[in-house]
UniProtKB/TrEMBL annotation:
Molecular function per GO: metallopeptidase activity
Species this chain originates from: Novosphingobium clariflavum
Cofactor detail note: Binds 1 zinc ion per subunit.
Domain PDZ: 76-134
Signal peptide from the UniProt entry: 1-30
The keyword NAD appears for this protein: no
Protein's recorded name: M48 family metalloprotease
Cofactor(s) listed in the protein's UniProt record: Zn(2+)
EC numbers: 3.4.24.-
InterPro entries: PDZ, PDZ_6, PDZ_sf, Peptidase_M48
Recorded family membership: Belongs to the peptidase M48 family.
Keywords for the protein's UniProt record, in alphabetical order: Hydrolase, Metal-binding, Metalloprotease, Protease, Signal, Zinc
Length: 319
C-alpha cells in the first residue's frame, strides 16, 4: 500500500512499478533554465546522498538490509527514443550504464568511482551480457543496482569502469544498509510516498525543499513507514498513529544521518503557508503546525539509532 506524506485531495493511481522508469517522463525546466536531464541529474545527486545516509542510519532497525555501495546508475535505454540523442550529448552517455550519482563518503566514493564513469563489468560479468538477458531493458539501471545490493554483505565487489576512453578496475567494499531504495517520481505535484520496500520523492518536492535538512526530514518520514512495515490501517485512529510514528522516527533518522531536523521542519511551515487547499485535505495527518510541534517535542534529541517512533510507541493524542 502506498502512503503519502503530503495529504492530497485526489488519490493517485500510479504504482511503484510505473515510477521505477523515472526517466521516461521529462520533468519541467528548473528555475535556472537547465535542460531537464541536467536538472534530473542534480536531483539524483541529492537523493543519492540523502538516501544512503538515511539507509545507513536505519540499518539496525530495518527488517532487511542490503549491501550498500552508494552509487546511482543510469542507462540511455530508460529515456524515450526521441530524447536519447540529446540526453546522450548532454550527459556524455554511451550504450553502457553510467554512474549518475555517488553518495559522499560511501564505499563507491572511497573506491575512487566518479560520476560519468561507464560500468563495463561486475565481478567479471560484462554489463552488455546482463543487458541482453534483462526482461525490461528500460529498467536496466535499476536491475543492476538491485544486483549490486544483493551481493553478500562484507564481500568486496570488483568493478570494471571506463573513464575517458580508458578502462580501469576498482574494488568496492559494501556495507550493510537498510534495503529501502529512494526513487524520483517525475511529476508536477509536491509529493512523497512509500510502500514496504521503496521511497518515492517527487521532483517538484525536491525543488520545493530549500535545503537537504528539509529533504531528509521528508524522506525520513517515508523511510519510517518502511522500517515500521506500515500497511493497511484498521481505521482513522490507527492511520494517525502510523503517521505520528513515521514523523518521529523520520526526524530521528534524519538527525542520526547527520542532518538538522530542527531546520528541516521548516519545510512543513512553508508548505502550510502555500497550501490553500489544506482545509479539504485528509484527516489522517496532523496539521503541519501540529506535526512540527510534535517533532520538536520528541525527536530533536535522543540516541542513535532512534527509538522514538518505532512500532509500539505512540505519540501524544493532541492534534
Amino acid at each position: 500500500m502506498q502512503r503519502n506524506i503530503i495529504p492530497t485531495l485526489f488519490k493517485t493511481s500510479a504504482t511503484l512499478v510505473a515510477f521505477l522508469a523515472l526517466f521516461v517522463a521529462p520533468i519541467a525546466e528548473a528555475a535556472e533554465s537547465h535542460p531537464w536531464p541536467v536538472t534530473l541529474r542534480e536531483q539524483m545527486a541529492r537523493i543519492a546522498d540523502i538516501g544512503f545516509r538515511l539507509d545507513l542510519a536505519a540499518a539496525p532497525l530495518c527488517h532487511s538490509t542490503m549491501s550498500g555501495i552508494g552509487l546511482t546508475l543510469d542507462h540511455i535505454g530508460a529515456y524515450q527514443k526521441s530524447d536519447q540523442v540529446a540526453v546522450a550529448q548532454l550527459l556524455g552517455m554511451t550504450d553502457s550504464p553510467q554512474i549518475a550519482a555517488i553518495a559522499s563518503g560511501s564505499p563507491a566514493d572511497l573506491a575512487g568511482l566518479r560520476v560519468g564513469d561507464d560500468l563495463v563489468a561486475i565481478d567479471g560479468v560484462s554489463t552488455a551480457s546482463l543487458f541482453a538477458v534483462t526482461p525490461n531493458q528500460s529498467l536496466f539501471a535499476d536491475a543492476l543496482e538491485e544486483r549490486l545490493g544483493a551481493m553478500p554483505p562484507g564481500r568486496a565487489i570488483l568493478l570494471r569502469l571506463r573513464r575517458g576512453g580508458q578502462e580501469r578496475e576498482a574494488t568496492v567494499q559494501p556495507i550493510p544498509i537498510c534495503s529501502a531504495r529512494f526513487l524520483i517520481k517525475t511529476n508536477k505535484g509536491i509529493d512523497a510516498f512509500s510502500d514496504s520496500k521503496n521511497v518515492a520523492i517527487s521532483s517538484s518536492l525536491i525543488e520545493f525543499a530549500q535545503n537537504d535538512d528539509e529533504l531528509a526530514l521528508v524522506a525520513g518520514h517515508e523511510l519510517g513507514h518502511v522500517v515500521n512495515q506500515d500497511g493497511d490501517a484498521k481505521g482513522l485512529s490507527d492511520r494517525r498513529r502510523m503517521e505520528d510514528r513515521a514523523d518521529l522516527l523520520g526526524a530521528g533518522l534524519a538527525r542520526c544521518a547527520g542532518y538538522n531536523p530542527a531546520r528541516g521542519v521548516e519545510f512543513w511551515l512553508r508548505y502550510n503557508a502555500q497550501d490553500w487547499l489544506r482545509l479539504f485535505r485528509s484527516p489522517s495527518h496532523r496539521s503541519p503546525k501540529s506535526r512540527v510541534k510534535l517533532m520538536r517535542e520528541y525527536a530533536l534529541n535522543g540516541p542513535c539509532p532512534p527509538t522514538v517512533g518505532l512500532v509500539g510507541q505512540v505519540a501524544g493524542n493532541g492534534r
